[in-house]
């Protein structure tokens, strides 16, 4: 069981942010930037948790909406925040206090069998886009699977100060992430750029020694 715990401030901030983002009245990054400037309660950790969950909700919006078909519209933003945080960090990260009154709904959402959902929902795409992709590309499945995954973080090494192999070794030590559960590396050299490094996740680079980030 993970020791990660979501705070009430993170749930509240994410609920308010999702209610704004899902109006689609402007670019998501600009909406998020305004939200974080206005919400003074959030420290670096809270902003990171909320931002990660908000972007994940946008990337997996089709299944999130499918989960919430019967949700009370007045409770929808709060419930969406709980569901999104639970599917990112596990329901135990919320705890009884945050789940009070909503635990049944959250557990029910997480237990939904998406095999019964329409193909566009499973692909995390609006119907119109799913139809265009599948009509144009008869081998679209790998593309659809890739689009549903979070993008990695690519960095460029300042070769005036260090070579890539040195930075790779230091990043692996500093971030303590050498191999994934599936056997692949968390920190790797990019395939084409001789100066690039790819991070599968988006770790807190503030934890990396300052000299290495200069």
Helical proportion? 40-55%
Quick one: how many beta strands? Answer: 3
Report the total helices. Answer: 12
The coarse silhouette is: globular
Q: Which ranges are low-confidence, i.e. pLDDT below 50, for 5 or more consecutive residues? A: 177-184
Structural class: mainly alpha
Beginning-to-end CA distance, first to last residue: 36 Å
Describe the sheet with the most strands: 3 strands, antiparallel
Taking Cα atoms only, what radius of gyration do you get, to the nearest Å?
19 Å
As for the number of domains, it is 3
The averaged pLDDT comes out at 87
Secondary-structure topology with pairs:
Blueprint: H1 8-21, H2 28-38, H3 44-59, H4 61-67, H5 76-89, H6 95-99, H7 103-110, H8 119-122, H9 127-136, H10 141-147, E1 153-156, H11 164-175, E2 187-189, E3 196-199, H12 210-213
Output the keywords.
3-stranded antiparallel sheet; globular; about 50% helix; about 5% strand; about 210 residues; Alpha-Beta Plaits; mainly alpha
Structure characterization notes:
The protein is mainly alpha-helical and 214 residues long. The protein folds into three domains: 8-115, no CATH class; 118-150, no CATH class; 153-213, 2-Layer Sandwich (Alpha-Beta Plaits), CATH 3.30.70. It is built from twelve helices and three strands, in the order H-H-H-H-H-H-H-H-H-H-E-H-E-E-H. It has helices at 8-21, 28-38, 44-59, 61-67, 76-89, 95-99, 103-110, 119-122, 127-136, 141-147, 164-175, 210-213, and strands at residues 153-156, 187-189, 196-199. It has a three-stranded antiparallel β-sheet, with helices on one face. A hairpin with a 6-residue loop joins strand 2 (187-189) and strand 3 (196-199). Helix 1 (8-21) crosses helix 5 (76-89) and helix 5 packs across helix 7. The two termini are 36 Å apart. The relative contact order is 0.10.
């Amino acid at each position: 069981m993970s020791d990660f715990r979501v705070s009430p401030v993170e749930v509240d901030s994410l609920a308010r942010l999702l209610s704004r983002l899902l109006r689609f009245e402007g670019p998501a990054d600009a909406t998020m930037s305004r939200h974080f400037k206005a919400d003074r309660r959030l420290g670096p950790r809270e902003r990171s948790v909320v931002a990660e969950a908000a972007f994940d909700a946008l990337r997996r919006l089709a299944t999130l909406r499918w989960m919430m078909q019967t949700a009370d519209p007045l409770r929808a933003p709060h419930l969406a925040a709980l569901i999104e945080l639970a599917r990112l960090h596990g329901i135990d990260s919320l705890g009884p206090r945050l789940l009070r009154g909503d635990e049944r709904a959250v557990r029910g959402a997480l237990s939904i069998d998406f095999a019964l959902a329409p193909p566009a929902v499973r692909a995390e795409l609006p119907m119109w886009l799913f139809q265009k992709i599948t009509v144009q590309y008869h081998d679209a499945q790998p593309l659809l699977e890739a689009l549903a995954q979070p993008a990695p973080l690519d960095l460029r090494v300042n070769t005036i100060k260090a070579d890539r192999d040195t930075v790779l070794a230091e990043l692996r030590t500093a971030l303590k992430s050498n191999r994934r559960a599936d056997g692949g590396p968390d920190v790797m050299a990019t395939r084409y750029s001789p100066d690039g490094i790819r991070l599968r996740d988006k770790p807190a680079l503030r934890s990396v020694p300052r000299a290495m980030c200069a």
